[in-house]
Design goal:
Elements: H1 26-50, H2 68-73, H3 79-125, E1 128-136, H4 142-153, E2 157-163, E3 167-175, H5 176-188, E4 196-204, H6 208-215, E5 236-237, H7 242-251, H8 255-263, E6 271-272
Parallel strand pairs: 2-5
Antiparallel strand pairs: 1-3, 1-4, 2-3, 4-6
Main location: nucleus
Subcellular location: Nucleus
Domain Pre-mRNA-splicing factor: 7-106
């Protein structure tokens, strides 16, 4: 009989979990910074005592003019010369302080810029929703451009449609926090006499597929699986007819916003320049 030795697979233990990072309290962080400063000062003093580092220059202030220590350091100098020496040293310390601060600020600019855009992206993506505003009686595009510029700065998507220089439809897609700022601008804007601003659409984006449709970058002529492109960056458009405006929204998957702007009731308490009894869009 031939005995076949079975192949034994080596036993591999499960990998150890990475150590959990402990988060210190503010009091613990302050205490650790104090300990680090004390240790750094002790190390500097030891290096100066051993001759490994140069001793810093004695710091003189105006109160030292009346003390004997300054006179012993400069025995041949008169009172006027001593004051000049002290004031020159103070000026050098001030200049060095500002130069150090400037270098530190320049070194932190890159991180500050990254943090600023990280905050913008987070606000533009958290709790995404679609909001539309209908503006009647708008004859100047200045306020519409203001809405467009602020929406683009907050990384929102959508479109501002100005139809026949009489009415406008503002459609914004993005995070709730970023849109709250735009709504505050709309509320506080000085609209012309006879203008009326209503919120006609507000819905949260909860479906992942729907969210990808809204936030994916639109490409000219590039149809997605749903047959529509993504919502573009905010821009001001002046279509000639209502049919052109509906086609523009349809290309971005927002045709239902147009129907809501024409037939749906007003949503929310946003009402600028309209009567309290007028609760529906004509």
């Amino acid at each position: 009989l031939v005995h076949h030795v079975p192949h034994v697979v080596g036993w591999n233990p499960a990998p150890e979990a990475p150590p959990m990072k402990l988060v210190r309290t503010p009091a613990e962080r302050r205490k650790q910074r104090h300990i680090d400063r004390v240790n750094k000062a002790k190390e500097r003093q030891q290096n100066e005592h051993l001759g490994l580092a140069e001793k810093p220059e004695q710091k003189w202030t105006l109160k030292h003019l009346e003390e004997r220590q300054l006179q012993l350091a400069y025995p041949s100098a008169g009172p006027t010369e001593l004051e000049t020496i002290v004031r020159e040293q103070i000026e050098k310390r001030v200049v060095a302080h500002f130069e150090t601060n400037e270098l530190r600020h320049i070194a932190a600019l890159g991180h500050q810029k990254e943090h600023y855009f990280d905050v913008l992206e987070r606000k533009a993506s958290e709790s995404p929703r679609v909001v539309a505003y209908r503006i009647d009686g708008i004859t100047d595009e200045y306020l519409l451009n203001k809405i467009k510029i602020n929406a683009k700065e907050r990384l929102l998507r959508g479109v501002v449609i100005w139809l026949a220089a009489k009415a406008a439809l503002v459609v914004l897609v993005g995070g709730e926090r970023a849109q709250r700022r735009i709504e505050a601008i709309i509320r506080n804007a000085t609209w012309p006499a006879g203008a009326r601003v209503d919120r006609v659409w507000c819905s949260n984006i909860t479906d992942t597929a729907n969210e990808s449709l809204y936030f994916q970058k639109a490409r000219a002529g590039g149809a997605k699986e749903s047959g529509k492109g993504g919502v573009e960056r905010v821009r001001l458009v002046k279509p000639r007819t209502a049919r052109d405006a509906l086609e523009l929204l349809s290309n971005q998957g927002l045709q239902h916003i147009w129907l809501a702007a024409v037939t749906a009731p007003v949503i929310g308490d946003l009402a600028v320049g309209r009567d309290e009894n007028d609760i529906a869009v004509a």
